[in-house]
RNA sequence: CGGAGCGUAGCGCAGCCUGGUAGCGCGCUUGGUUUGGGACCAAGAUGUCGGAGGUUCGAAUCCUCUCGCUCCGACCA
């Protein structure tokens, strides 16, 4: 491709609307343009990256035995009513009517459609297992689209759905997808973790998220520094060395703590560590229960763990008045002694003795408190947020490291939730109708490209890994008006094209500075500068975008060298 | 949906408080000089000041309403 005939509108300045680096760079590098909130056009340069990503996904899905199909964006309401999601999905489901006033929605995901296809086409267990996928534009009318392609309303997603007769088969299908996902993200050259995740509203037995590691990631994850265990902090399990049962040695005693409301205040005032304090949170659940939650002073509550434990949809910190009513004191002085509401404690609290708690009265705390003696806890459980340094629950030897991650893929074992609701059954060997056991597997295509940029950039611009780069080689022609230089660049360009190397020839009539700045911005992995100065010596200049390494290479050798570097950049080893 | 902020030329912004001829930088066009890290000189073009209504002799500026966008929360690939 010739730059002079291409559409690659780079921006010198950062558009004000872009907050995160990937969004800024994708706009500046002419990859995307916004059409409306959370809705983008993919310009030619950006589309090339997207297509690369799609192709990698396609190849690995196919390798794993999945079959590509394509389902419609417009879905009739009936299917969604049948699964019950027409009502449940809420405003995120973009609904509209056709000319006959029939209800439709834009597909935010395709469990209904695929289940409908399978129930109408598959009747026997002999046709199983099946795994169908598509790469398609989804629409979710997000409350708050943001960060460019990272969280759009319209976005391209690869979604796959597996169907098995039995649970064990579904586990195998899930494992295949897990491995396919690892292959996909390995091939992209991304630093990521596959983590155990909360299966959330979609339900199902287990679930993994694939997280590209990046500072700006929206999720917290932890991974063990010595074994393979990794998990979303929402889910990360914790263990406690409870070898030494705590022994109470102190008497309970009220102390005045005027104005000391926060843990830090109390710790400083009483000259104790936050680790010797137990904080009492008053929370409300979706079932309208108010309860007290106990945590070590320096810990954070993990509301998802608590909600799962209680079997409720959500828990929230209680309003000021509710706290007042439950404890008889304003916030900051809540404690477990004498409460009439249920008390749930983090498992860690069980290992503590002689701790400080709130006194349920203004400016009063209690020291020397002990559970079981001074108050009762109805349940001890793992309900706190995992942090770096916590011991690994699997190998019990390693410690957690913590990261920020961008969720680019998520795999779920769904079970029979949709197949039962939609009556998707096959006959087993005994002639009995059995609901299909399903799994679903998503990858955000645009988000992965954005995440790759988030992870690979410097102050000058994008540094895309070779497998996702829109072009593999950029030939910068410095003096288009110098016939000799022009001919040398043209020849190189032609040779690379003949070798099927994806090359962009910057033949614009621009000054060198502009070409170099643009080159760094758009981040093509390999740049060859053809200019009068080095050509005199029979050389061209090779610059590797990632390392910044510059070498002079003779005109005769450059093609072979580029060929090797491209091949190297695309090389990958399949796991298993 | 709750809270905060912003809409002025293609992009980045000033002007608004204290009403009176719409500006700056970049980009764009033309000519010339330049040509290895976002050149210089000269001459240009470009705006319903997001929209509607109001106050006023007069509104980008003050008031009301509206639409859009961005950020913080719940959600998610």
From TrEMBL:
<dbReference type="InterPro" id="IPR036754">
    <property type="entry name" value="YbaK/aa-tRNA-synt-asso_dom_sf"/>
</dbReference>
<keyword id="KW-0648">Protein biosynthesis</keyword>
<dbReference type="InterPro" id="IPR045864">
    <property type="entry name" value="aa-tRNA-synth_II/BPL/LPL"/>
</dbReference>
<dbReference type="InterPro" id="IPR033730">
    <property type="entry name" value="ProRS_core_prok"/>
</dbReference>
<dbReference type="InterPro" id="IPR004500">
    <property type="entry name" value="Pro-tRNA-synth_IIa_bac-type"/>
</dbReference>
<dbReference type="InterPro" id="IPR050062">
    <property type="entry name" value="Pro-tRNA_synthetase"/>
</dbReference>
<keyword id="KW-0436">Ligase</keyword>
<dbReference type="InterPro" id="IPR004154">
    <property type="entry name" value="Anticodon-bd"/>
</dbReference>
<keyword id="KW-0547">Nucleotide-binding</keyword>
<comment type="similarity">
    <text>Belongs to the class-II aminoacyl-tRNA synthetase family. ProS type 1 subfamily.</text>
</comment>
<dbReference type="InterPro" id="IPR002316">
    <property type="entry name" value="Pro-tRNA-ligase_IIa"/>
</dbReference>
<comment type="function">
    <text>Catalyzes the attachment of proline to tRNA(Pro) in a two-step reaction: proline is first activated by ATP to form Pro-AMP and then transferred to the acceptor end of tRNA(Pro). As ProRS can inadvertently accommodate and process non-cognate amino acids such as alanine and cysteine, to avoid such errors it has two additional distinct editing activities against alanine. One activity is designated as 'pretransfer' editing and involves the tRNA(Pro)-independent hydrolysis of activated Ala-AMP.</text>
</comment>
<dbReference type="InterPro" id="IPR023717">
    <property type="entry name" value="Pro-tRNA-Synthase_IIa_type1"/>
</dbReference>
<keyword id="KW-0067">ATP-binding</keyword>
<dbReference type="GO" id="GO:0004827">
    <property type="term" value="F:proline-tRNA ligase activity"/>
</dbReference>
<dbReference type="GO" id="GO:0005829">
    <property type="term" value="C:cytosol"/>
</dbReference>
<dbReference type="InterPro" id="IPR006195">
    <property type="entry name" value="aa-tRNA-synth_II"/>
</dbReference>
<dbReference type="Pfam" id="PF00587">
    <property type="entry name" value="tRNA-synt_2b"/>
</dbReference>
<comment type="subunit">
    <text>Homodimer.</text>
</comment>
<dbReference type="InterPro" id="IPR007214">
    <property type="entry name" value="YbaK/aa-tRNA-synth-assoc-dom"/>
</dbReference>
<protein>
    <recommendedName>
        <fullName>Proline--tRNA ligase</fullName>
        <ecNumber>6.1.1.15</ecNumber>
    </recommendedName>
</protein>
<dbReference type="InterPro" id="IPR002314">
    <property type="entry name" value="aa-tRNA-synt_IIb"/>
</dbReference>
<dbReference type="GO" id="GO:0006433">
    <property type="term" value="P:prolyl-tRNA aminoacylation"/>
</dbReference>
<dbReference type="InterPro" id="IPR036621">
    <property type="entry name" value="Anticodon-bd_dom_sf"/>
</dbReference>
<dbReference type="GO" id="GO:0005524">
    <property type="term" value="F:ATP binding"/>
</dbReference>
<keyword id="KW-0030">Aminoacyl-tRNA synthetase</keyword>
<dbReference type="Pfam" id="PF04073">
    <property type="entry name" value="tRNA_edit"/>
</dbReference>
<keyword id="KW-0963">Cytoplasm</keyword>
<feature type="domain" description="Aminoacyl-transfer RNA synthetases class-II family profile">
    <location>
        <begin position="33"/>
        <end position="465"/>
    </location>
</feature>
<dbReference type="GO" id="GO:0002161">
    <property type="term" value="F:aminoacyl-tRNA deacylase activity"/>
</dbReference>
<dbReference type="Pfam" id="PF03129">
    <property type="entry name" value="HGTP_anticodon"/>
</dbReference>
<dbReference type="InterPro" id="IPR044140">
    <property type="entry name" value="ProRS_anticodon_short"/>
</dbReference>
């Amino acid at each position: 491709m010739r730059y002079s005939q291409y559409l690659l509108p780079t921006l010198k300045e950062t558009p004000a609307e872009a907050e995160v680096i990937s969004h800024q760079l994708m706009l500046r590098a002419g990859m995307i343009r916004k059409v409306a909130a959370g809705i983008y056009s993919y310009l030619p340069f950006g589309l090339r990256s997207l297509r690369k990503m799609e192709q990698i996904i396609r190849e690995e899905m196919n390798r794993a035995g999945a079959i590509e199909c394509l389902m419609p964006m417009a879905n009739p309401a009936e299917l969604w009513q049948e699964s019950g999601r027409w009502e449940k999905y809420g405003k995120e489901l973009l609904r509209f009517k056709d000319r006959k006033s029939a209800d439709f929605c834009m597909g935010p995901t395709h469990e209904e459609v695929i289940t409908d296809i399978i129930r109408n086409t598959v009747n026997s267990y002999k046709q199983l297992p099946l795994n169908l996928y598509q790469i398609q534009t989804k629409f979710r009318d997000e409350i708050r689209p943001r960060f460019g392609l990272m969280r759009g309303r319209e976005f391209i997603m690869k979604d796959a759905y597996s169907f098995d007769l039995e649970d064990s088969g579904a586990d195998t299908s899930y494992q295949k997808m897990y491995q396919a996902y690892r292959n996909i993200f390995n091939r992209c050259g991304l630093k990521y973790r596959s983590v155990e995740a909360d299966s959330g509203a979609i339900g199902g037995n287990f679930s993994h998220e694939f997280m590209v590691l990046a500072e700006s990631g929206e999720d917290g994850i932890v991974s063990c520094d010595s074994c393979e265990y990794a998990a979303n902090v929402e889910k990360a399990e914790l263990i406690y060395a409870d070898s030494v049962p705590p022994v109470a040695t102190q008497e309970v005693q009220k102390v005045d703590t005027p104005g000391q409301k926060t843990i830090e205040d109390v710790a400083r005032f009483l000259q104790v560590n936050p680790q010797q304090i137990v904080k009492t949170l008053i929370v409300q659940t979706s079932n309208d229960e108010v309860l007290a939650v106990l945590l070590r002073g320096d810990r954070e509550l993990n509301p998802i763990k608590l909600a799962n434990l209680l079997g409720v949809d959500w828990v929230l910190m209680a309003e000021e008045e509710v706290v007042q009513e439950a404890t008889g004191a304003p916030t900051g002085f809540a404690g477990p002694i004498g409460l009439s509401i249920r008390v749930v404690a983090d498992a860690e609290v069980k290992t503590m003795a002689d701790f400080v708690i709130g006194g349920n009265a203004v400016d009063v705390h209690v020291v020397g408190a002990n559970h079981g003696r001074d108050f009762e806890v109805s349940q001890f459980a793992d309900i706190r947020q995992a942090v770096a340094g916590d011991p690994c629950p699997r190998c019990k030897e390693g410690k957690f490291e913590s990261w920020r991650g961008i969720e680019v893929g998520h795999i779920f074992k769904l079970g029979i939730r949709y197949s039962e609701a939609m009556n998707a059954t096959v006959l087993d060997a005994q002639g009995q109708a059995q609901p299909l056991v399903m799994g679903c597997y998503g990858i955000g295509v645009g988000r992965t490209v954005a995440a790759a940029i988030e992870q690979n950039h410097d102050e000058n611009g994008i540094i895309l890994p070779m497998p996702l780069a829109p072009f593999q080689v950029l030939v910068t022609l410095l003096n288009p008006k110098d016939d000799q230089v022009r001919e040398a660049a043209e020849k190189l360009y032609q040779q690379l094209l003949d070798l099927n190397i994806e090359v962009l020839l910057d033949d614009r009539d621009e000054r060198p500075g502009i070409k170099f700045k643009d080159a760094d911005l758009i981040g093509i992995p390999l740049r060859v500068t053809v200019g009068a100065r080095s050509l005199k010596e029979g050389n061209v200049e090779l610059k590797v975008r990632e390392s910044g390494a510059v070498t002079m290479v003779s005109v005769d050798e450059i093609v072979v060298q580029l060929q090797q570097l491209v091949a190297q950049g695309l090389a990958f080893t399949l796991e298993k």
